[in-house]
Each structure stands twice: as C-alpha cells, then as structure tokens.
Amino acid sequence: MALNSKIWTIGVISDTHGLLRPEAITALEGADYIIHAGDIGDPAILTKLAAIAPLTTVRGNVDREPWTRKISASNVLEVGEISIYVLHNLNELDLNPKAAGFAAVVSGHTHQPKQDLRNGILYFNPGSAGPRRFKLPVTVGRLVITGIKIQSEVIHLEV
After folding, report:
1. Looking at CB atoms within 10 Å, which of 13, 24, 36, 73 has the fewest?
2. CATH topology of domain 7-156
C-alpha cells in the first residue's frame, strides 16, 4: 500500500422498513459514506443517515409513498478508484457488472446477509437492519476500500 493511499469505509444498510435502530446508527458512525439498499420505509431515516455521512440510496419494492419517487431504483457510488452499483433486488440486475467496470454490487431485499465473490465482482447484501423477520439476524454491513481492493464485513447487531 502506498503511503498516501486513502482507506475508505462505507456503511451499508438495507430493509429498515421504517425502523432505524440505535445499534445500527452506532455501527455506521465513522463511515466515509453510507449506502441504503432500499425498503427504507420512512424519509426520516434518510435524514438521520445523511447526518452521519454522504448517502447513496435506492428505492425498494415497498417504497411506494410519494416521497420515494425522487429515489431511483439503482444508483452508483464512486469511491477512490472503485465503482459500486446499488440496487434493491439482485434478481433485477440488468447489466454485466464486470463489463461495466464495477468492483461491487450492493443489494438488499432478501433480509439475509451475504458476501459472494463471483467473476472478480463482490456481491454484498448487508441483510436487514429493520424489524426482525422470522429468525433472520438483524445486521448492517461495512465495505473497506484501499486502492482497488474492497473488503466486506457483516455486522450483527445486538438487539
């Protein structure tokens, strides 16, 4: 690593469904950027997250209220030398991330945290930070970028 290489931290949250837990806020504090991968549920959540760090967000399948119309279904976050494609439902991915030059694809929707490296592309789902669904964990995620390297971590919240 070069001496002047910046290390970027990106907090990743999804499927809040109107509930932004204090534990999630604590886990995201100190991030350089935050991604919300959809199913937001309440515009106040975006305000609170944007107060922590610059926010990149997408609309989820339950985000149907009038305030969500200004939020797109997909988005891109560029950090340093890395581009990250963001959408809510990975099954709706309509491009080839490798051909498009993305290092990672961030999604939500399933409420299940998942980290998968396919064809050199990180596919990351932070799971759900909102109301507990079935027996699934309550989680957020973190991406750490150094140069062209990207690492991911799922953070289990004590709730």
Report:
1. 73
2. Purple Acid Phosphatase; chain A, domain 2 (3.60.21)
Tokens of 159: 């709730």
pTM (global) more than 0.85: yes
User: Smallest Cα–Cα separation from 144: which of 54, 32, 39?
Assistant: 32
* Residue bearing tokens 């610059």: 54
Q: Token pair 């970027």 is at which residue?
A: 8
Structure tokens, 12: 């990743």
| In contact, 140 and 27? CB cutoff 8 Å | yes
Which residue, 70, 74, 72, is CA-closest to 89? 74
Supply 85's token pair: 């494609």
Phi, psi of 92 (to 5 degrees): -100, 10
**102-139: pLDDT as tens digits:** 999 999 999 999 999 999 999 999 999 999 988 899 99
Of the candidates 62, 61, 54, 60, which has an alpha carbon nearest to the alpha carbon of residue 28? 54
**3-state SS assignment for residue 14:** coil
Domain ranges of the chain: 7-156
28, two tokens: 């995201």
What is the DSSP-derived secondary structure letter of residue 144? E
The DSSP bridge partners found for residue 132 are none
